[in-house]
Please model this.
Amino acid sequence: MKKVVLTHRLYEAGMQLLDGKVTVSITNTGKPSEMLSELVDADGLIIRIGSIDRSAMLAAKKLKVIGRPGVGVDDVDVAAATELGIPVVIAPGANTRSVAEHALALIFAAAKDILSSDKQTRSGNFNVRNSYKAFELLGKRLGLVGYGNIGRELAKLCSAIGMKVVVYDPFVKQETIEQLGYQYENELDELLRNADVISLHVPLTDKTKNLIGEREFGLMQPHTVLVNCARGGVIDEQALSVALKANKIHSAALDVLAVEPVSPEDPLALLENTIITPHMAGLTKEAAAGVSTMAVEGVLAVLRGEQWPYVANKEVYEHPIWRK
Model:
């Protein structure tokens, strides 16, 4: 029976799919060096939290597939996997609605000053109701940076409550956006200058790392809300902390940070105008079941020798291993 290593236990639906089909080993760590003793004879690896690098792949000589219950592969050396003929299975679309809803919830929480008002009310400050920090979203401009599955879903939700949607995505055609009644922006700077709410939906790559930094915060308005349910490294967090302290923007609502879990002493965690959730946007019951089952189905398919379509490196199937 083939062996599949899990960095951490999957949602129960995924575990049930594995049961009886493969031998499962759970490391409870995502650090390559700490997983190595289990990886050396593993046929498959599913990374819920953690990473794998080239050296670990070379040591795991039997490794045939890497699975991710999600779409982010910034912690996987995809180039090395492709070179070695290892498909990197992902789960596109399975958590789209959950992440979009979470982004919308963060937008509402920031716009209505929910967390600070709750804290002040519980401490006896009922007069916080007179601070007038909350604002309506009707007619406000939502600036979407990235228009993939999640960006598209959030656009629908925000449009439905009367927000104006503006999209920046160089990989999407202008006519595609305008046919939906949204505004297309050619330049990121223009979107940052004019949006009331900015929501990030881009992968973490060399080009998007610190995409939003000191210069970009200088373009935003004092009433701007910044939302990030993508990847922490997309924002220069030191620059964000400075901008929030100086009230250069209204607030930030973050589901992801560059280093997780966040330290209670992190400058962002100490600010009143920041909302932080524990990378949970895609962890509803429905989404967790969807991404775990999709990842497991893909891993099992590859182990059977099938060319599973939902992989981050489709060119891997040109490898000599797959040509056979």
Observations:
- Residues 285-303 form the longest helix (19 residues).
- Residues 143 and 198 are 5 Å apart (CA to CA).
- The chain has a mean pLDDT of 96.
- The longest strand covers residues 141-145.
